[in-house]
Amino acid sequence: MGLWVQKYGGTSVGSLERIHEVVERIIRAKRQGNDVVVVVSAMAGETNRLIEMAHGLSFDPDPREMDVLLSTGEQSTIALICILLISKGFLSRSYTGAQVHIRTDSAHGKARILEIDEKKIRADLDEGRIVVVAGFQGSDSEGNITTLGRGGSDTTAVALAAALKADRCQIYTDVDGVYTTDPRIEPAARRLARITFEEMLEMASLGAKVLQLRSVEFAGKYNVPLQVLSSFEDGPGTLITYEEKEMEQPVVSGIAFNKNEAKLTITGVPDEPGAAYRILQPISDANIDVDVIVQNTVRDSSTDLSFTVQREDYEHALQLLEPLIESLPAKAVTGDNKIAKISIVGVGMRSHPGIASKMFSVLAKEGINIQLVTTSEIKTSVVIDEKYLELGVRALHAAFDLEKAPTEEVDLTK
Amino acid sequence: MGLWVQKYGGTSVGSLERIHEVVERIIRAKRQGNDVVVVVSAMAGETNRLIEMAHGLSFDPDPREMDVLLSTGEQSTIALICILLISKGFLSRSYTGAQVHIRTDSAHGKARILEIDEKKIRADLDEGRIVVVAGFQGSDSEGNITTLGRGGSDTTAVALAAALKADRCQIYTDVDGVYTTDPRIEPAARRLARITFEEMLEMASLGAKVLQLRSVEFAGKYNVPLQVLSSFEDGPGTLITYEEKEMEQPVVSGIAFNKNEAKLTITGVPDEPGAAYRILQPISDANIDVDVIVQNTVRDSSTDLSFTVQREDYEHALQLLEPLIESLPAKAVTGDNKIAKISIVGVGMRSHPGIASKMFSVLAKEGINIQLVTTSEIKTSVVIDEKYLELGVRALHAAFDLEKAPTEEVDLTK
Fold it and tell me: Tell me, what's the pLDDT at A245?
């Protein structure tokens, strides 16, 4: 019993049949004695339909007007959910983002939530209503409709849960939880019963696209207990929380990977202040995101700097680096767009030294050469030849015993 | 030059191609030096699509939630219009009903506009923007989304024109004006260059479904010059204004008709106070609309009372009257659901006596028997056997010279 925020994504509400199933889940939570706030996305396909119409009129549709257009998607869903809830005898009320004062900045298409006035929702809950809020949208201080960008419904749910001090925030999606790695690559991959916010952030940013990154940050910041659950089948899902002291932490919680990067290296860079800046500035000016950056020790008063970019930016980044050979000067620019990045993630790494070297030995045993290494407190990433990706992921999954559940399962849907 | 409000209905914006044409019209008005406010409906078919979805979930969808759902239709259109205007280099901004404070009562699905705050629109016009407003919708004092009911976009346009003191309110639709009668029945029917608000009200309520009745009332009340124009072809349309003293008025402006009624008669009703009330009260209690009511003079201290109802209510109304034979008492209840009503409408009738008798003689010459007659200041209606409807309309159209234009044409689109 408590206050639950439930979020249902586009595939979960993708048809009238699916809406029936979602409404059954909402009613179950309500019947268990909870106050329920529901956040929904547009029906699967609807956002694309609207985008296509806009692109049928303009190559570069005005961002303010795109938000007016796209926000109709969730608005339809909230109404349909409430129509069914009410016809089944449950008091409920729908709200657009603007109606419950989800105040954002004015960055159309990628707005950030600034504040939420939860009074209206609280009043409805006190009167026994189920409240259904349109995800992904809000309005700025001028009353213009804004959207948070794709996946923003997760953020809406977490922000509402934080504002309402909800007991849990359940993200219903088309997968039944967060996995130790992608089951398409390692069939022995196992759903995690728990994962920490920090680990989830590392997993999400590395390609395990279950939750929108910003929503995980938000949940961590406001300590909102987050659950990832399947709307297609019952199951305990994955709970994302802060690390609990008494919990036995696994050393490695999961293995993330990314095949969509390319590596660039500039060799013979002068060992002087500002060199790295002069290399990365033109890249950043061209709006190219840089992921891993590695600089090695100085040898013969010069050094080598490597970094990775999205694979689609590879050619452009190469062109931007070429002039540096003369201007820096540097020795050469090389690159490789057939790489992959594998990361092992786990808060247990903090207290277990030697995890990185175990990772390297596992890869070496499979004959996989490591091109770059970076580490953070709870993650070690390596860049390797992309053809070894699957082999590497499977070897690491086995070596760190990820197919075995480290903690007993707790059914958090009850 | 001035401030023009243009309203485009669902068929006028029914496809991306049609939106292109509408935007060309808007730009033409703007280029002529006018401030332009545009009101649009949902794309043709969209409202029905949404209604079908709702009915897929509930036989009796909640009215508040239906309004949340249906209002997305116009919201999509305003965004698409603005996307195209902006991509063609015209400053423009879209607003939902709630955003420009189209304040209504809370009668979901048939709300009435209470007030409009035109400041936001005025500020945009002052900055050179074309303002595009969603028709058919508003919000109540609690911020709930409301809709005005089908055809409500006409009312939005007229209400905005009144609030902004617009120089004209142009209603673009799929017909090129108001006709002397239905051209499908009388091919010689002629588009009227002008018609008065009062005549238009009589024409509209009698079945000439060009404009929503409420919008004409509204335009008359606030003296908003209303133009009905085709969005499919250029043309002068029909101007709806107050009667101008210096204008030569035609005696009869148009012929309206209705085939969807049925007649009921109760004979031998006692000539005593309250008899008519006791007959019509059960009808009204059953939510059956009564149109024409005719009571004739007393004969042998009893009278006969006839009235018409929508044809679908005929059987029900008959049942409700049966018990009155005993309780009133009355002599008999009879009825006929194969009738039609024909009305001649014209402000000139005020100053031309004998129009009604001319109507009767025209019908008599064709052998058409008149069952009921009612008259108002600017209208005479007769109920006849429905099989004579077309014959009667054509005979009257010819007799009152309606195929000839009484006033010279003025091109009001310039």
Answer: 59
DSSP code at position B299: B
A69 touches chain B (CB under 8 A): yes
Report the distance separating Cα B74 and Cα B348, nearest Å: 40
Contact A20/B at CB under 8 A: yes
pLDDT in tens, B292-312: 888 877 777 888 889 999 999
Instruction: With beta carbons less than 8 A apart as the criterion, state whether B329 and B270 touch.
Output: yes
Question: How high is the pLDDT of residue B149?
Answer: 72
Mean pLDDT to the nearest integer, A256-260: 90
- Residues B194/B238, Cβ–Cβ less than 8 Å: yes
Q: Which of B16, B19, B69 sits opposite A76 (nearest CB)?
A: B69
Give Cα B119 to chain centroid, integer Å: 29
The verdict on A134 touching B (C-beta cutoff 8 Å) is no
CATH topology of domain B3-174: Carbamate kinase (3.40.1160)
- Partner residues linked to B266 by β-bridges: B305, B333
- Whether domain A3-243 has CATH 3.40.1160.10: the reply is yes
Task: Give me the pLDDT at residue B211, please.
Answer: 79
Name the closest residue on chain A to residue B96, using Cα atoms.
A68
Query: Which of chain B's residues have a Cβ under 8 Å away from the Cβ of A77?
Result: none
Dihedral of alpha carbons B29, B86, B173, B205, sign: negative
237-276 in B: which are within 8 Å (CB) of A?
none
> Nearest CA to A333 among A322, A345, A317, A349?
A322
Interface test with A, best of B82, B92, B106, B131 (most A CBs within 10 A): B82
Residue A413 has pLDDT above 50, yes or no: no
> What pLDDT sits at residue B270?
86
- Which of B65, B78, B99 is opposite residue A83, by nearest beta carbon? B65
pLDDT band at A362 (very low <50, low <70, confident <90, very high): very high
Judging contacts by C-beta atoms under 8 Å, the chain B residues touching residue A137 are none
CA pair distance A110, A67, nearest whole angstrom? 10
Which one of B22, B23, B26, B68 would you mutate to disrupt binding with A, by most A Cβ within 10 Å of its Cβ? B68
Nearest to A62 among B62, B69, B86 (CB): B86
Cα-based torsion angle of the residue sequence B242, B243, B244, B246 in order, rounded to the nearest 10 degrees: 170
The DSSP secondary structure of A312-366, one letter per residue, reads GGHHHHHHHHTTHHHHTT-SEEEEESSEEEEEEE-GGGGT-TTHHHHHHHHHHHT
Provide the mean pLDDT of chain B: 90
This complex has an ipTM of 0.81
Mark yes or no for CB contact B60/A96 under 8 Å.
Answer: no
| pLDDT single digits (tens) B199-226 | 888 887 665 567 777 788 889 889 999 9
pLDDT value of position B334: 92
Which residues in chain A are contacts of B66 at CB distance < 8 A?
Answer: 79, 83
CB contacts, 8 Å: A143 with chain B:
99
A71 close to B (CB below 8 A): yes
- Average pLDDT of the residues in A272-297: 86
Q: What is the pLDDT of residue A55?
A: 96
For chain A, domain boundaries: 3-243
